[in-house]
Amino acid sequence: MSNETINPEDYSQLESQVLETIDRLRPELIEVSRTIHANPETAYKEYQASALLASKLEENGYQVQRKAADIDTAFVAYAGDKPGPTIAILAEYDALPVIGHACGHNLMATAALGAGLALGGIVGKLPGRVAVFGTPAEEGGGGKVVMVQRGAFKGVDAAMIFHPSTTNMVHGGSLASTRVNIIFHGRASHGAAAPHKGINALDGIIQTYNAANAMRQQLRDDARVMGVITNGGQAANIIPDYASAQFSIRAADRQYADEVLERFRKCAEGAALATGATLEFNVIEPSRYDNVVTNSVMGKVFTEKLAQLGLEVATGDREGTGSTDMGNVSQALPSIHPYLAIAPVGVSAHTIEFREAAGSDVGQEAMLNAAKAMALTTLDLLVKPGLLDQAKQEFADLTAKGVVKGM
Length: 407
What we know:
The protein is of the alpha/beta class. It folds into two domains: 8-174 and 292-401, Aminopeptidase; 176-289, Alpha-Beta Plaits, CATH 3.30.70.360. The protein is built from twelve helices and 14 strands. Helix 4 (105-120) crosses helix 11 (361-383) and helix 8 (296-308) packs across helix 11 (361-383). It is elongated. It starts with 7 loop residues before the first helix and ends in a 6-residue tail after the last helix. The model has no long low-confidence stretch (mean pLDDT 95).
C-alpha cells in the first residue's frame, strides 16, 4: 500500500504541527535564506550553501548522504523508517555568475529545508520516508540531469520543488533545452599583408549566426536559438585561427528541441564548408534539460494548500518560459514545479531587480508559504488513501503515451 489511513482528528493535529513548526522556525529560515543570498556560489561550487543545508537537516534527525551521485555539492537526506513511499522535496542553491541570486535559488533552498524540518518532526507518525535532495548547478550545469542519470532518484515515488516568480502558478511549464559549444579552427595570417593565406575562424561563427537567424523564420513559435561569441580572435590585424561561441537551443518538447538542434548543426557545418574552417560541435550533455510535465494530481493538492494559506493561484500561461533541469526529474517520476510570486509582474528573472526581490521581506514570505505548501502536500501524499496511487497512475498513463520517459 502507498499509505495508511489516519483519522481526521489525527490528520488535523499533524497539519497544525507542520504549520506551527515552520512558524516557529521563521527567524532561522529567513537567516538561512539571507545567508545564502549574501554568499552566492555558482554551479558545482556551492560548498557553503550545501554544507549549511545538510548540517541543518542532520542536526534535526535526518540521515544525510553528502556528495550524492558523486557530486561534491549534492546531498540526499532521509527521515523516517516505516514501510511506505518516499516523497522528495528538492532544493536548488546555485547562483548566476556576476549577478548572484537573481533567480531566487536561496528561497528555493530554504523552502525545501523548512518543509523538511517540519515533516521531520512528525515523520515517526507517518508511513514511508521524507527526503530532501540538495541539487546543485541548475543554472546550466544540469545537477538534476546527472543525479537522475546516476540513479539518485531510484526508490523515490514523487518529487516537488518551488520556484520564485511574479505570479502564483502551479501548472507553469518549461522549455526543453540544450547548450552547444562550437569552435572553428582556421589559419592565422596578417590581415593586411597576406589575407589570402588565412582561413578566418571568426567567419565560421558569423556565418553560423547568419544561418541560424535565417532558420528562425521556419521554426515553431516555441523554439529559441540564442548564442554568444566566447572568443572572436586576438587582434584586428590578425586573421583569427580560432573562434568559439556557445548557443542555447530550446523548444516546448524534447523531440522538437532535438530537431532544432540538428538543424542548427547543419548551419554550423554549412559555415565550415563556406569558410574552409574546421568545425568542432560539442553538445554539453548535462545541459539537455527536458520540458517539465506537471503531475495534475499533485498539482491539485498543492493548489489547495496555497488556497488554505490564503494565496490566489493564477490560471493560464506564465509570462515567459525558461528551462530547468527539474524537467528531467518530472520525466522520471511524478513531479510538480509550482511558482510563487516575489516580485511584480513585468520583473524578469536573472535581473538585479529579481535578485533584490529574492532578498526582500516579500521574498521571505513566499519562501515560508512554499515551505508550508510543500510540507502539507507531502503529508497528503503519504497519508491520504489512494492519492499517491492516482498520481503514479497518471504518470504511468503519460509514459505509455510517450509524454514522459519514465525512470
